[in-house]
Amino acid sequence: SIVAVVNSFFKRLYERSQLPLSGKKVVVTAGGTVERIDPVRYISNDSSGKMGFALAKAAHELGADVTLLAANTHLPLPAGIRVVHLESAQEMYDAVLAEWSVTDILVKAAAVADYRAKEVSDRKIKKSGETLTLELVKNIDILESLGKQKTKQLLIGFAAETNDLEKYAMDKLQRKNCDLLIANDVTREGAGFGTDTNLVNIYDTTGLIESLPLLSKEELGMRIMELAAARLPGAQE
Amino acid sequence: SIVAVVNSFFKRLYERSQLPLSGKKVVVTAGGTVERIDPVRYISNDSSGKMGFALAKAAHELGADVTLLAANTHLPLPAGIRVVHLESAQEMYDAVLAEWSVTDILVKAAAVADYRAKEVSDRKIKKSGETLTLELVKNIDILESLGKQKTKQLLIGFAAETNDLEKYAMDKLQRKNCDLLIANDVTREGAGFGTDTNLVNIYDTTGLIESLPLLSKEELGMRIMELAAARLPGAQE
Predict the structure, then answer these.
(1) Which of A62, A157, B227, B233 to pair with B129, CA 20 to 30 A apart?
(2) pLDDT more than 90, % of chain B
(3) Which residue in chain B has the smallest CA separation from A74?
(4) Do B46 and A37 touch (CB under 8 A)?
């Protein structure tokens, strides 16, 4: 009957309003930024976007209003999540800032290029000499910039390292004013780019808080969003 | 009955033996090569591999034994075709050469990087100065090298240009000793990288032979393979 349908709708609405991230805005960045060299060539990295997509799905399951900012991903789009496709670090920064004032949790899972080409050719560069020198300039550091602008936002960063994991992770967390830092050694089996699993340590300002076993990116996404939810102002202990 | 199944099998085998490319070996390269900068970063280009995959499917439909050499593609794998995944220009060259002596038609649809990083770091390069200079060195020119080693092989190249299409196309065809050169202006709507359609001119050593309308990459793949089949030694006019 129509009454049962309406009741069921409001029941689901009520249940969703009771979830750990109900009424919260979560922004997740995913994938690897693309920095153009010319109209057909670019510099990018191996980030597949799987970790960011898993985080966005977990945040949605926990009741949040989620925006996923995706660069160079080739994954099926998750249901119920607003996805914005973009390319460069600058576009990523602009998109994050556009949502910043209403963001409760920002998870920067994207691998954002540290450098971009100093000059982007508007024509395909023709092959010429035996060598070519590409001048790169530093991109804005999105996480560092957000760390300085933080008011209520919980800021979660990632560190993909090939050596000296803890040293780089704690250094990054402090320099960038993150609340949580998820660090993985991408040289370890099952960790890092393109895989369906991840093997991470999680740090907060006090140091290592979790050293997780090999988990699927879905399981890890849920664990991270649960940790984040528990750290929001007013969260029940 | 078993007799009917066996008859049907031999009928299909016979029919396949009568196709325009029956008994012919076709090698198609597809996608955009990936040139490493360090374990997580690379230089690549916008080639999606769609044109190469369509060419491989067309060659298979015309009866050929097909090998598809794919770099940085995210497409569903076509049935009945041997696919080899690889990354760099050097790996592409090695893979093409491994099949060269038995190849009848080589279609180089992949966008192969002209340059690679002079030094590939075995550790992730840490961000440091405001600028970074990337020294690149020229890759081997696969098409030119094959053009010099041609015996029986029909060599088909592509040119993706943003300006002066015919000039660059004829120049490339002659310098690289191609039999057919498929040229598109990637700035035109519906042409080029990532699209499902393409808009090309086809050249041989005498000049322009076909100026095709906007076609799906499947239609264009079939047209190119038909043109190629007609140019093989012993092809019926």
Answers:
(1) A157
(2) 73
(3) B74
(4) no
User: pLDDT confidence of A131, banded at 50, 70, 90?
Assistant: very high
Which CB contacts under 8 angstroms, 24+ apart, belong to B164-173?
A: B165/B201, B166/B201, B166/B203, B166/B208, B169/B201, B169/B203, B170/B203, B170/B207, B172/B143, B173/B203, B173/B204, B173/B205
Nearest CB to A123; choose among B42, B134, B163: B163
Per the structure block, which two tokens stand in for A211? 């050293």
Cβ neighbors of B215 (< 8 A, separation 6 or more) are B197, B198, B199, B223
Q: Which CATH number fits domain A22-230: 1.25.40.10, 1.10.3470.10, 3.40.50.10300, 3.30.365.10?
A: 3.40.50.10300
Closest approach of chain A CAs to the CA of B35, in angstroms?
Answer: 9
Fold for the domain defined by B20-118+128-230: Rossmann fold (3.40.50)
pLDDT band at A179 (very low <50, low <70, confident <90, very high): very high
pLDDT at A236: 60
The helix/strand/coil state of B150 is coil
Residue A146 has pLDDT above 60, yes or no: yes
How far is the C-alpha of B159 from the C-alpha of B166, rounded, in Å? 10
In B, minimum Cα distance to A136 occurs at B132
E strand or H helix that includes residue B12: helix B2-17
Res. B236 pLDDT band, cuts 50 70 90: low
User: How far, in Å, CA of A139 to CA of A43, rounded?
Assistant: 13
**B contact set with A (CB within 8 A):** 37, 39-47, 74, 111, 113-115, 118, 123-124, 127, 129-138, 160-163, 186-187, 193
| Ramachandran quadrant class, B63 (left: phi over 0; alpha: psi -120 to 50; beta: rest) | left
Closest residue of chain A to B128, computed from CA coordinates: A138
What are B187-195's contacts with CB under 8 Å, separation 24+? B187/A39, B187/B162, B187/B163, B190/B214, B192/B46, B192/B160, B193/A40, B193/B45, B193/B46, B193/B47, B193/B48, B193/B111, B193/B160, B194/B46, B194/B48, B194/B50, B195/B50
Show me where the domains of chain B are located.
20-118+128-230
Among A19-33, B193-207, B220-234, the least confident range: B193-207
Give the tens place of pLDDT for each residue, A85-110.
Answer: 999 999 999 999 999 999 999 999 99
**Residues of A noted as catalytic:** 45
Give burial (CB, 10 Å; 0-12/13-18/19+) of A196.
exposed
CA atoms within 13 A on the CB side of B152: 11
* Size (chain B), residues: 237
